[in-house]
Please model this.
Amino acid sequence: MRLICIGRNYGEHAKELGNAVPDEPVIFLKPESALIAQGGPIVLPAFSNDVHHEIELVYRFARINGRPMADGVTIGLDLTARDVQEQLKKKGLPWEKAKAFDGSAYVALPFLGEEALAQRPHTFSLKKNGTVVQDGNSGQMIFDLPTLIAHVDKYMRIETGDLLFTGTPAGVGPLKAGDSLEGYMLGELLFEIQVEGPTP
Ligand code: MG
Model:
């Protein structure tokens, strides 16, 4: 199982970080070891002073008759050490230290099935300490789900069980110890998680 992630897939988010809107999807990976246990907590890494929340729609795939089909959807967090990423970006280096560290991904389980998949758009939001900080929907994606699937599959065959993080809307920001996050999709609370400081 892989966590396949798309970057810069919402125009307002690309702008807020000073990035150009891409002309094709930006792809990166997180290892399975990045996953945070259900219910948390998020433990901030000691090597960063600026870990950002990025709430994203996450689709799960099954490969049926040779074609990858989404068979579940939920929301997740693509946690990003923004200070580390900025340094890597300046040097033109890969993003793994900023994006793929232990505890950098959360996926709210269980996945929602056919009924949720059939709804459009997929609305979602993130509350930090009770205030909505990010709010988006699948209709705002620069590259929609079928485009992303076709593009990713061209480079790395999407297998059953693979997850696709589809990018974050505007409003990303730093986490600190003691923060409390709530994630919503289609108006339902799908996760609540606490943030803790680095383990001494
Ligand atoms: Mg992201």
About this structure: The helical segments are 11-16, 82-91, 96-99, 114-118, 145-155.
